[in-house]
Amino acid sequence: GATIQLDGLTKRYPGSPNPAVDNVTMEIKAGETVVLVGPSGCGKSTTLKMINRLIEPSSGRIRIGDEDVTDMDPVKLRRQIGYAIQSSGLFPHMTVAENIALVPKMVGWSKSKVKDRVEEMLDLVGLDPREFHDRYPRRLSGGQQQRVGVARALAADPPVLLMDEPFGAVDPITRDHLQDELIRLQHELHKTIVFVTHDFDEAIKLGDRIAVLRERSHIAQFDTPEAILTN
Ligand code: ADP
Ligand code: ADP
């Protein structure tokens, strides 16, 4: 994993009177899972999108390891960060396998390594490769699409995972399984994970630390699940 440092991070969307994210400073330690939990609209997605450089901060800094994200070369950024979102974000014109293979290919893995990895990732998220390898996203349920989204985020084995309500549409049994897989990745592979949810139980289960956010991502509490439950 790698440390993620947010320093005075602020985002103002054009035309909005208030910033969506206002002056957030936070350190996520290497190998740690931090869960951002808070009401809809409090700026969780905006924060993840800034870390992943999908949108530019209005001000403030983001560092991963000792590098400023703004200075990072795009391929290096893709190698560093896996990103899974609620709506899965799959490319509709690509099959399941092509979606999962995208980043490993981009960062230069060999054909045979990519092929094996796609199978491994489908197994990990509980989708039979024989059935799902060549399907197009529109022929999957919402939960299956999310699982492919998670497989794609993990495919190139990035040290950092950004996950934005990745299990929201997944059925409860599979969600439990995926949550356990995530805990395993966190313990065995020491990923640094920033996980967004509005589900407090999910936050308690997955977080080494939990940031309870109010409007504009103001941090109301930032502590271990144990400490948060006793306060
Ligand atoms: P959350 O992920 O916590 O639900 P978001 O980060 O999606 O919150 O949104 C935070 C605030 O910013 C909300 O008020 C939302 O309406 C606003 N917002 C999000 N994306 C945009 C955008 N592209 N343009 C303008 N406002 C936005
Ligand atoms: P999700 O959180 O799954 O991305 P949203 O409905 O929050 O779903 O956002 C869908 C898209 O619309 C995102 O690209 C987001 O940036 C944008 N968006 C969200 N809120 C606003 C807003 N108030 N004004 C303009 N665009 C927005």
Automatic annotation (TrEMBL):
Keywords: ATP-binding, Nucleotide-binding, Repeat, Transport. Signal peptide: none annotated. One of its GO terms (molecular function) is ATP binding. The keyword Transmembrane does not apply. The keyword Lipid biosynthesis does not apply. Residues 4-231 form the ABC transporter domain. It comes from the Bacteria. Belongs to the ABC transporter superfamily. This is Betaine/proline/choline family ABC transporter ATP-binding protein. The chain holds residues 15 to 245 of 416 of the full protein.
